[in-house]
Write a structure and sequence with these properties.
about 350 residues, Rossmann fold, 7-stranded parallel beta sheet, 4-stranded mixed beta sheet, 13 helices, 17 strands, binds nicotinamide-adenine-dinucleotide
């Protein structure tokens, strides 16, 4: 098997490439990345040690992808993944990279008959209907109420039949548009593909920043004793996300790669669900316990565009298809992030 991982020096891409190299000694793994993400360069020695070939290239350029040569499978992990991307008045990068780039990936897959695993996002679900859900305020977090105004929403989270009308951020829109293209490529060219709509993925080697990679960002602030801010929703810190350890995701992707015929055509939410979820307030508590440091957390009631008070992945569709289940708890995710920061303190202090 020759497998190309695009965005292969990124957080998920590097974990996937290295995880597959460890599982399959005979496979040839390639990681293509333009190193746009700050800190991605720190993953290059890890890729090298695992025997993954690094290709410095840009998915906006079809020729860069074609230079990778024949491949049997393509795991599309590249993106401009920030929900705030383009809000500064320049949508070009997020559209060219996430949409034109995805098209180029599909072209490569079409030409080589490669099976595609596409990492999509919970951000395909529109913002306003998510923000309008019935929410209950518990002591440390928001909860989804049992009586919801739309289909696809319940206390277990958001399911794939949640209505798709409405704006969803440029990031979410480019990802949904790429999903639609995949559907057309399956229909017109017999492309085999699976779409994983991921909630928050977290773990070591995520170069967390304020608008992407919140759990690493929170732990970094605790470790380096920087102050933080609860932004929006009254500044209470009760906003909630489910989270999934990146190694749990790699386990699932390895299964999907091994069984293309079984997974082809599946579009499924992938996340920790209600069972593995945290509010920021709870995250602060855990970060303080694990790092041994308490930091000041200011409150800001200013709302951030595209933000929602709670998102939980309802993974019932996925769970009906596989025995795979997340194995790592929210505490384990944070503890692993902390151990990684402690081991690589000086490199991370410089890069992030
Ligand atoms: N991390 C999450 O919580 C999460 C959640 C849902 C979906 N996803 C999806 O998973 C995928 C990977 O996300 P991540 O968290 O690893 O992000 P990341 O930013 O760590 O990795 C993305 C990588 O893509 C590279 N890249 C960006 N533009 C490129 C281009 N034009 N050509 C080549 N490489 C390019 C970046 O340099 C980076 O290394 C993305 O598609 C993202 O949308 C991530």
């Amino acid at each position: 098997m020759r497998v190309l991982v695009t965005g292969g020096a990124g957080f998920i891409g590097s974990a996937v490439a290295i995880g597959l190299a460890e599982r399959h000694q005979g496979w040839e793994l390639m990681a293509l990345d333009n190193l746009r993400r700050r800190g991605a360069e720190l993953n290059l020695p890890r890729l090298r040690e695992a025997g993954v070939r690094f290709l410095h290239g840009d998915i906006r350029e079809l020729d860069d992808l074609l230079a990778a040569g024949e491949c049997d499978a393509l795991v599309e992990c590249s993106a401009e993944p920030s929900a705030l991307a383009g809000r500064d008045g320049s949508p070009a990068y997020v559209v060219h990279s996430n949409l034109v780039g995805a098209y180029n990936c599909l072209e490569l897959a079409r030409r080589h008959g490669a099976y595609v695993i596409f990492l999509s996002t919970s951000r395909v679900y529109p913002v306003r209907p998510l923000a309008a859900l019935a929410i209950e305020e518990a002591q440390t977090r928001f909860e989804l109420g049992s009586d919801q105004p739309v289909t696809g929403a319940s206390p277990a989270g958001i399911a794939e039949d949640f209505p798709l009308a409405g704006a969803r951020t440029l990031y979410g829109a480019t990802k949904l548009a790429a999903e639609l293209l995949i559907e057309e490529y399956r229909d017109a060219y017999g492309l085999r593909a699976v779409i994983d709509r991921c909630g928050v993925i977290a773990g070591p080697w995520q170069m967390g920043k304020v608008d992407q990679g919140v759990f690493t960002f929170w732990m970094l602030a605790h470790h380096f004793r920087r102050s933080l801010e609860y932004i929006g929703f009254g500044g209470t810190g009760k906003q909630v996300r489910d989270l999934l350890h990146v190694e749990d995701l790699v386990d699932l992707l390895a299964e999907q790669l091994a069984q293309p015929e079984r997974w082809d055509g599946v579009v499924a939410n992938v996340g920790g669900g209600r069972g593995i979820s945290l509010s920021l307030l709870e995250t602060t508590q855990l970060c303080a316990e694990i790092s041994g440091h308490s930091v000041e957390v200011r409150r800001s009631a200013v709302e951030r565009p595209g933000d929602v008070p709670i998102y939980l992945s309802d993974c019932a569709r996925l769970e009906a298809l596989t025995d795979w289940r997340p194995r790592r708890s929210a505490r384990e995710v944070l503890a692993d992030i902390h151990a990684w920061i402690s081991r690589h303190e000086s490199a991370l202090a410089r890069a992030l």
